[in-house]
């Protein structure tokens, strides 16, 4: 995509990535893609805010070259040192040896450790402002959103917040780069939530602190490092992030996530019965098969919904193995304060439920009930599961 003028003298010079399969080497984006948003501020002095991943270096440099000569760049602002934000730094630095790198104090150490650059690095402090002429850049430290060195940059004249990873999401830009041009905001909301839970959720208290810190600013546009630029309704994406961050303590919405795995169909049959019971309670339920769904897509549902049901058979006196990495990620991301239910089949000895309880104990999940059954799910056992789902749905509806 060619560069786009956001406001007079301020340009989006980002790139789309349709070839990377796993974001951070973990989270699938092979279908959705992702954008690396970079911005150029052109005044008496010229600044570039955030960069791009190294695999896009040629495309990125072409964007810059269409607007300015590399020898005229005065500042390179690094809000965040993760390589998808800074990967082209060495090449850009060689083309613009006169440019000063602006970053936080912790980022200065990372510039050295990641790129071997020790000269022309200036640390900016909280609230510091640097004039470019009529425009100026003001810096706000936002540690752990989502690395300790992260900051945000605010262009005072145009009231644009370059928010780095905050308020961003997966999803390559589909022609439109602004929210008011986008005909499918639901896609970007879904991918922003998935991005939030995959990447940022562990640090939700710091997200709320950052939002509170920025609350006194007049913000006309939010320009994150990934996803849409929000100019028509910038408060929308900020409100989304606030709501999602608050779920860390509140437990989320009155809905249920049902996650299951099955070896020979017995636990799957029980899943259908339990889901039927939940539906009869009138509570919304989302169902995921861990054998076929990447945890990246399940975690957002676990984060948002107050109720969690896990269905898993016993495997070698323990929990069905494909459920284990999902629960491990839920622990790492801090999916806490839930109401929970377990069911599963076993052949000759139980054990799945015991391991499940051990895994979720650090998460402050209230275990409402459980049902383990031996062998096949006969009609009378399925009836128990249906009743269990119905009663659990009632618990969630009355929260």
Total strands: 23
Structural class: alpha/beta
CATH class of the largest domain: Alpha Beta
Rg, nearest Å:
24 Å
How many helical elements?
A: 12
Which geometry do the CA atoms define?
Answer: elongated
CATH superfamily of the largest domain: Ribonuclease Z/Hydroxyacylglutathione hydrolase-like
Counted up, domains total 2
How much helical structure, as a percent, in the residues?
A: 25-40%
Q: Per CATH, which architecture of the largest domain?
A: 4-Layer Sandwich
> Average pLDDT across residues?
97
State the CATH topology of the largest domain.
Metallo-beta-lactamase, Chain A
- Low-confidence spans: none
Q: What is the end-to-end distance?
A: 48 Å
Sheet-strand content, in percent, reads: 15-25%
Largest sheet: 7 strands, mixed
Strand order of the largest sheet: 1-2-7-8-9-10-11
List the helices and strands and how they pair.
Elements: E1 4-7, E2 10-12, E3 15-17, E4 22-23, E5 27-28, E6 34-36, E7 39-42, E8 46-49, H1 57-67, E9 75-77, H2 83-86, H3 89-95, E10 100-103, H4 105-115, E11 121-123, E12 129-131, E13 136-141, E14 151-155, E15 160-164, H5 185-200, H6 204-214, E16 221-224, H7 234-250, E17 253-260, H8 266-281, E18 285-289, H9 295-304, E19 305-311, E20 314-315, E21 318-319, H10 324-333, E22 339-346, H11 352-360, E23 366-374, H12 379-397
Parallel strand pairs: 8-9, 9-10, 10-11, 15-16, 17-18, 17-19, 19-22, 22-23
Antiparallel strand pairs: 1-2, 2-7, 3-6, 4-5, 7-8, 12-13, 13-14, 14-15, 20-21
């Amino acid at each position: 995509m060619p560069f786009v003028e956001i406001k007079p003298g301020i340009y989006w010079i980002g790139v789309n990535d349709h070839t990377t399969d796993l974001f951070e080497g973990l989270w699938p984006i092979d279908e959705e893609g992702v954008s690396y948003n970079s911005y150029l501020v052109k005044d008496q002095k010229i600044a570039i805010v955030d960069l791009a991943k190294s695999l896009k270096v040629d495309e990125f440099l072409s964007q810059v070259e269409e607007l300015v000569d590399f020898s005229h760049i005065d500042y390179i602002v690094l809000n965040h040192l993760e390589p998808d934000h800074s990967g082209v730094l060495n090449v850009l630095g060689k083309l613009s040896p006169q440019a000063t790198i602006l970053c936080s104090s912790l980022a200065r150490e990372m510039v050295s450790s990641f790129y071997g650059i020790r000269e022309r690095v200036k640390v900016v402090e909280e609230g510091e402002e640097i004039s470019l002429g009529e425009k100026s850049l003001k810096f706000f430290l936002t540690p752990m959103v989502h690395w300790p060195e992260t900051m945000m940059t605010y262009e005072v004249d145009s009231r644009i917040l370059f928010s780095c990873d905050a308020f961003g999401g997966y999803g390559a830009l589909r022609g439109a780069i602004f929210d008011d041009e986008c005909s499918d905001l639901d896609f970007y909301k879904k991918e922003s939530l998935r991005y939030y839970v995959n990447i940022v959720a562990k640090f939700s208290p710091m997200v709320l602190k950052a939002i509170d810190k920025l609350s006194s600013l007049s913000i006309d546009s939010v320009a994150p490092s990934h996803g849409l630029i929000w100019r028509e309704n910038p408060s929308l994406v900020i409100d989304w992030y606030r709501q999602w961050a608050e779920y860390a303590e509140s437990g989320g919405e009155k809905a249920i996530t049902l996650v299951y795995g099955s070896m020979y169909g017995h636990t799957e049959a029980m899943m259908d019965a339990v889901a039927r019971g939940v539906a009869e309670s009138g509570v919304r339920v989302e169902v995921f098969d861990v054998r076929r769904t990447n945890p990246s897509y399940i975690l957002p549902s676990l984060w948002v919904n107050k109720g969690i049901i896990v269905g898993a058979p016993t495997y070698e006196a323990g929990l069905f193995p494909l459920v284990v990495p999902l629960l491990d990620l839920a622990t790492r991301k801090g999916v806490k304060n839930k109401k929970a239910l377990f069911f599963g089949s076993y052949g000759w000895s139980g054990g799945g439920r015991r391991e499940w309880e051990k895994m979720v104990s650090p998460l402050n999940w209230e275990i409402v009930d459980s049902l383990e059954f031996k062998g096949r799910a006969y009609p009378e056992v399925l009836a128990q599961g249906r009743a269990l789902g119905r009663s659990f749905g009632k618990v969630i509806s009355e929260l």
